[in-house]
Amino acid sequence: MKTRITELLGIQHPVIQGGMHYVGFAEMAAAVSNAGGLGIITALTMPTPNDLAKEIARCHKMTDKPFGVNLTFLPGFEAPPYDEYIEAIIAGGVKIVETAGRSPEAYVPILKENGIKIIHKCTSVRHSLKAERLGCDAVSVDGFECGGHPGEDDIPGLILLPRAAEELTIPFVASGGFGNAEGLVAALALGADGINMGTRFIATVEAPVHQNVKQALVDADELQTRLIMRPLRNTERVLKNAAVEQIIAIEKEKGADLQIGDIAHLVGGVYPKILQEGKMDIGAWSTGMVAGLIHDIPTCKELVERIVNGAEEIINERLASLVAA
Ligand SMILES: Cc1cc2nc3c(=O)[nH]c(=O)nc-3n(C[C@H](O)[C@H](O)[C@H](O)COP(=O)(O)O)c2cc1C
């Protein structure tokens, strides 16, 4: 399948693995890129820019295909040394960066000067248009269904994607809620040039996370995610567990007076314990509603091929036969 995204990024299939904290290590990125999609290393999971440089070098050893690096601009008091992370990306010869969190404005010039393609991930048409104006090469449009931070507008993909298609000139991929062939066909029908997946890629053989995490996604249905941190305007979609129930109780009790300090012990620094050690109830971790569509743990190659081949079959057979009829 050839789309503006496969052409832009030099990849075989229009399937991207979005940056994921404590999931986007070289093993994950290389497996997706080797499967013909675009794998992405998550910069800030690496404690220092030097660690990112090492992770990029490791990934180059595992794949000769293009892969990207995610740069998430976090809300917070002390900003990570973004300039140095970018130096590691440039020195490592990475040619694709996924930006997210807030406007990449300050870093667009340096990335462009170094021939790096920028995919900005955002959750609204207005932010997509801003990214286009700034010179980003593509946008990842994340609907309300998504795992992680869906923003505060609550517009699901069925409306957000065709709205993005109405307004954008640059290519865009549909993100949030994608995990199967039907989703890819729908994304293309809604005007997107491909899909970006987070949650679905965690339940794969190569994802470098604890087996409990993969199994939790297989076990969960579409009713098992919750939104937290809405009063802080930092809404996150997470998998329901004991910690999330506690967070929701605290949020209810504090109402509009909620401070991050009230829930910090349940949301801060918990990722390695959950994703690597498999302690599933100690904190909140991002998960999308697409968990309801995850029923197995295939290899990345099996998954990507299943999605792309399945999409081609739906288009050529089911949809074509409806039109013919
Ligand atoms: C466990 C997890 C961690 C994530 N961490 C990040 C991150 O650090 N930076 C980022 O830009 N997006 C992050 N995301 C969002 C994904 O890149 C992607 O946009 C989202 O998962 C798409 O929705 P889906 O889960 O329905 O596929 C994360 C998602 C998950 C599930």
Describe the protein in words.
The protein has helices spanning 4-9, 26-34, 49-62, 82-91, 108-113, 125-134, 157-167, 181-189, 199-202, 211-219, 242-254, 260-267, 271-276, 300-324; strands at 15-17, 39-42, 67-72, 96-100, 117-122, 138-142, 172-175, 195-197, 225-228, 236-239. It has 325 residues and is α/β, with parallel strands linked by helices. The chain has 2 domains: 4-208 and 297-324, TIM Barrel, CATH 3.20.20; 225-286, no CATH class. The protein has an 8-stranded parallel beta sheet. α2 (26-34) packs parallel to α3 and α8 packs across α14. The longest helix is centred in the C-terminal third of the chain and has 25 residues, at 300-324. It is globular, with a radius of gyration of 19 Å. The two termini are 25 Å apart. 46% of the residues are buried. The model has no long low-confidence stretch (mean pLDDT 97). Bound molecules: flavin mononucleotide (FMN). Flavin mononucleotide binds next to β3, β8 and α9.
